[in-house]
Amino acid sequence: MRHLKFGFPTAADRAANQAVMRDVFRAHPWLLPVTVAAGAFPAAIAAHGFWQTQRLKQQLRIEREKTQQLQLQADQHRRHAPGARGVRHHG
Fold it and tell me: Rg of the chain's alpha carbons, rounded to an integer?
């Protein structure tokens, strides 16, 4: 195969490659679904990983919000508790 300056195949190279692939798939038709599956498998894994990451990020946001709410409730409880204004009772 001849390539241009930057490694791009020429139109003749592409046509020859397509002819070879067409002949291979005609001789071995079972290769077509295998080839498609081999290309789809990494995409499926990437999509699954993306959605798993999004779900975990959402769970983390929820847990952070819960923690913030608990901290606010604890702060409010401390403000309204007796002796919360810095007065210490020695006893």
Answer: 32
Query: What DSSP assignment string belongs to the chain?
Result: --B-TTSPBPHHHHHHHHHHHHHHHHH-TTHHHHHHHHHHHHHHHHHHHHHHHHHHHHHHHHHHHHHHHHHHHHHHHHHHSTTTTSPPPP-
Distance CA 74, CA 19 (A): 73
pTM above 0.85, yes or no: no
Asked if residue 9 lies in contact with residue 17, where contact means CB atoms within 8 angstroms, the answer is yes
Structure token digits, residue 80: 């309204």
Q: Which amino acid is at 89?
A: H
pLDDT digits (tens, 9 = 90+) for 38-87: 999 999 999 999 999 999 999 999 999 999 999 999 888 888 766 655 55
